Amino acid sequence: MRHPFLTPLCILGAVILSACEQNTDAEVRRAIEDVNVIDESNLNDLMLTVADPNEAVAYFSKTAQQHPERIDIRRGLAKSLVRAKKPREAAVVWKQVIDSPEGTNEDRVGHADALIRANEWQKAEAALNAIPPTHETFDRYRLEAMIADANKKWTKADSFYETAFGLTTRPAGILNNWGYSKLTRGDFPGAERLFSESLTYDSSNFTTKNNLVLARAAQRKYDLPIITMTQQEQAELLYTAALTAIKQGDVTIGKSLLEDAVETSPRHFEQATRALETLNATVTKG
């Protein structure tokens, strides 16, 4: 016995099943695309942080050639070039980014940063001047302070450093830079204060420790500050203090500090030993 009413039901069922299959396929494709976007985003982040800088440059260069319309990839390339210590090339790429409709004020800050690293100070200053004053970020004021330093506009530099300090939760670096600015001006007490404050935020930074010893030694305070240091760091800091003492004419103190540096070092301290031998030879001839 035939059931003619079943035919349209079967056809309807087939249509519904087909539609369901199509929807499922579309959903799968979208899911895969979403996963690819997530994976690419994660890969981009990795390339910008932990990857070897030259590998990151190669990755972003290749991707930029494949997708020339992707400004985010060009941003990644510019940042990677900076990490790879190729600031001139980075500045060229940043210019392409800021000239695009998608260029932002933050991109202009990146461009200025690359120009400073490339020793293009006037161009960097012009790039910063093109950014509206309403764009107030740590990086912008950090660069403004550096420009003011280069122009020996100390009041402006101090103002920019102070503003940058207030815009970051990790101020050790900006305090060190500010301290170095004070050091170059001859404001040794001010430099000492800033280096000491920087070390309260990052006690492991040897550059800041060395700068602190320089600032103190410039005031003829040759004893090492009470800070966290390894035995090797202590030897190197004594060496820094010794050289400063000798340059300032305090030869006897410098010689004693060199001897302490050699004795303190857990391994043969070639630089201090050579300096001590030179000093002894000079004194003997004299």
TrEMBL record:
This is Flp pilus assembly protein TadD, contains TPR repeats. It comes from Albidovulum litorale.
